[in-house]
Amino acid sequence: MKISPKKTPHLTLIGAGPGDPELLTLKAVKALQQAEVVLYDALVNEDILDLAENAVKVSVGKRRGSHSFTQDEINQLIVTYAYEFGSVVRLKGGDPFVFGRGKEEEVFAGKHGVETTVIPGISSCVAVPASIGIPVTFRGISESFWVITGTNSSHELSGDIALAAQSSATVVILMGLSKIEEITKIYKDLGRSDLPIAIIQNGTRNDQREVIGTIKSIVKLSEEEAIKGPSVLVIGDVVNFAGVKKITEEIFACEDEFIFQNLGAFPF
After folding, report:
1. Vertex 46, ends 42 and 51: CA angle to 5°?
2. Would strands 37-40 and 170-174 be described as parallel, antiparallel, or unpaired?
3. 105/69 Cα distance (integer angstroms)
4. What is the rounded CA–CA span in Å between residue 26 and residue 215?
5. Whole-structure pTM value
6. Among 235, 187, 189, 188, CA closest to 213
7. Of 13, 205, 243, 261, which is most buried, counting CB atoms within 10 Å of its CB?
8. Are 127 and 21 within 8 A, CB to CB?
């Protein structure tokens, strides 16, 4: 391959966010407007593609049971288009470094002389729960959260879920709906059948749907509501906040007397 004397090959990895086009960052908008080629995933809201008016748009989406391109083929397309057109955008749902294989693409491009700029995106692991009022952390209830893929590279349930289920942390599982029975069994075996769980389909999009229940009831509820992927699973007591728009002041007992006494303000 030879680099065009007029165009230096460059890759921009962009996180398209969880689904709502208005959650795209300003930096991502500018990059899309300047793009000459956009390689986009299946989970990207196609309304976002309208921002790349002058770009060649290529769908390279991968969904469960349906891969239009292998990852190796996508890597090669990035390099080929970068040398042919110059500015290539790789548009990925959520954030490119959260189960998006973005780093693999950056490394491959670098080995072939293509520099990369990364523009982070809002990850569905926090945005989708927030869209129905669920905070992944809450003082006195959950001081940390796990983000886990439901299905690993071997198409099996991630072993990390069994570890996370033993903690008091909020557990957010992406790509886990097809494993819901296995997931709930892990919690049931630990005696946590009454733990709240939410499943949110098409989070932040106009066609978003959700079902909320407990570990012991969620499989039946999700079947009754015909919930499908892509969905985000949220497990933990913070799910009880779903739909709550206003939290009473008394929940936020001021713990920092210095801030209150010296600034006259609560630390939130």
Report:
1. 130
2. unpaired
3. 14
4. 39
5. 0.85
6. 235
7. 13
8. no
Residues with catalytic roles:
41, 62, 175
Token pair listed for 134: 């669920």
Structure tokens at 216: 């012991």
Give strand pairing partners of 90: 13, 39
C-alpha angle 183-127-142 in degrees, rounded to nearest 5? 60
* 89-121: pLDDT as tens digits: 999 999 999 999 999 999 999 999 999 999 999
Q: What three-state secondary structure class fits 180? A: helix
- Total residues belonging to the chain: 268
Q: How many whole angstroms separate alpha carbon 28 and alpha carbon 31?
A: 5
Q: What is the helix (H) or strand (E) element at residue 255, kind and residue range? A: none
The CB density around residue 241, as the number of other CB atoms within 10 Å, is 17
- CA 95 to CA 92: how far, in whole Å? 7
Q: Residue 175 to residues 30, 73, 200, 201: CA-CA distances in angstroms? A: 30, 22, 11, 11
Dihedral angle sign, alpha carbons of residues 173, 174, 175, 177: positive
Q: Count of CB atoms within 10 A of residue 235's CB?
A: 29
d(CA 161, CA 197): 14
> CA-to-CA distance for 85 and 132, rounded, in angstroms?
41
| DSSP-derived secondary structure for 52-91 | -TTSEEEE--EETTEESS-HHHHHHHHHHHHHHHSEEEEE
Q: Please provide the DSSP assignment of 84-148 as one string.
A: HHSEEEEEESB-TTSSS-HHHHHHHHHHTT-EEEEE----HHHHHHHTTT--S-BTTTBS-EEEE
Chain segment 9-44, per-residue pLDDT in tens: 999 999 999 999 999 999 999 999 999 999 999 889
